[in-house]
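Recap quiz, item 2
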Amino acid sequence: MTETLLETRDLDVTFRRGRDRVPAVRDVSIAVTRGESYGIVGESGSGKSTVLRAICGLAPVSGGQILLDGAPIPDPRDAAFYRRVQMVFQDPYASLHPRHTIDRVLSEPLAIHGFDRREERIEQALAEVGLGEGFRFRYPHQLSGGQRQRVSVARALILEPQVLLLDEPTSALDASIQAEVLNLLDRIRTERGLTYVMVSHDLAVVAHMCDRLMVMQHGRMVEELTRDQLRGRAAATDYTRQLLQASKGYTPAA
Amino acid sequence: MAPLLTVEDLRVTFPTRRGPSEVVRGVSFTLGRERLGIVGESGSGKSQTGRAILGLTPPPGVMTAKRLEFDGIDLRRATPAQWRSLRGARLSMVMQDPKFSLNPTMTIGRQLTEMLRFHARMSAAEKQRAALAMLEAVQIRDPDRVFRAYPHELSGGMGQRAMIAMMLVTEPDLLIADEPTSALDVTVQVEVLRILDRLVRDRGMGLIFISHDLRLVGSFCDRVLVMYAGRVVEELKAGDLDKATHPYTRGLMNCLPQIDRDIRPLPVLKRDEAWAR
Ligand SMILES: Nc1ncnc2c1ncn2[C@@H]1O[C@H](COP(=O)(O)OP(=O)(O)O)[C@@H](O)[C@H]1O
Ligand SMILES: Nc1ncnc2c1ncn2[C@@H]1O[C@H](COP(=O)(O)OP(=O)(O)O)[C@@H](O)[C@H]1O
Ligand SMILES: [Mg+2]
Ligand SMILES: [Mg+2]
């Protein structure tokens, strides 16, 4: 028996822009198993980030339900929720406060959630993401993009969550740095038995990182595939086949 | 046949507090009527190489070269008047970020027809027709609307296409495209590449295609220069990227996750100081 940890049922998200209503997510139902790594792929504007933000309470849910361990999650999200579910954002340049040292970035969530042994936890978190003690009192501008993304991962992990929501965590990074961060995320998930929901526009990244994935287009779910189905190019829809084709690079028109 | 462009020992230097910093360090290549890719990681000097060729090195940066020749013209000695007649008309560049290249206060149509200002023999109506045809060629479905639109009224992908139309409307002999499709979705990206491909094949344009995406460059270009720390460390036929011999090129290829192959952990790049020497 597999056990669902995180679930959305018929999730709708609608933004208001002046008088306009922008439906960003429509009828999205996913069920992520404990310990699973679940991917969301699609082109820009398809609603991938909005699904993650809705789970975190950062987007206006206009319909449907979000459940954690079978129970609807409280609105607004409480401290207990953020201890279990943490998010890593795409842009490592924008997501760290420019005037806070790494030490402060990591100690704040510990203080807010009343954790003990803070010194030890900070040292451990830095070591876990491959940053030495030397980085602890630096500011974000003194770090490279890959180092900043490691800090974002450390910040998310320091509360020992069960679920990490990862929004294009390597899209802003060079290929060689992407490989390092993906390896880090992969290792941590195995070691800690974490559950991931990872958004990416890159099918190869999702194939590498995720056991199962959903393809989104225009706010809706197009189809769900396992990694093996993706590898075997066993897509059920033209849209997914088109994405698979494009991921190979350029092919001259027939 | 003489090459369209000859670049020999191109260097770009910026003054910094710690002394001059050379960010392009002796780049040499020739370009025919072909698709030449320049790949490398961020900061390797790709954009500065492209800008230097067009005389667009931002001050206080300084460009030097032993030779920089476009169709027999020594670009190092080009006067401002010569540059004005070359840029846009015969030499064009698509910049990495469309926000910096589209004028927010002018309609797309006006900007497109302005590009044709050096084509004195064209009437206003002819210019408008050429502009609309170009918008259609970059797969803009509603060219009349886009012609009348201001940049902020267009989506990102549409803006990128409008900008590509702008760079191509003059039918340049040489186009430098700096990550022209990086902000586009894969399905749109393919359409834009087809347009560039056609211009090279049918009109004999020379194309320098700058990108960080090895897979894309390998599948799209004829030849590839691989840059590292301001230098070209390897030059290859695009189809031979998987036979690259330089450890940097090989490392960049190997660290990419692949749909069909499960290598865990992904090989990471081990940098060697000797590459930068
Ligand atoms: N804060 C917001 N206000 C209004 N519209 C938004 C907001 N955030 C996202 N959207 C819209 O929702 C849609 C989905 O966006 P997003 O989830 O960011 O897509 P993706 O992550 O797949 O690129 C887009 O049309 C976007 O413009
Ligand atoms: N205006 C500038 N002043 C000083 N250094 C610069 C300037 N522009 C770029 N550089 C430096 O030149 C190097 C090469 O930059 P660039 O050509 O933009 O790299 P790429 O396009 O390969 O990412 C980088 O180290 C960058 O920091
Ligand atoms: Mg997004
Ligand atoms: Mg660049």
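Strands of chain A lie at 4-17, 20-33, 37-41, 61-68, 71-72, 85-88, 163-167, 195-200, 212-217, 220-226.
DSSP finds nine helices and ten strands in chain A.
End of item.
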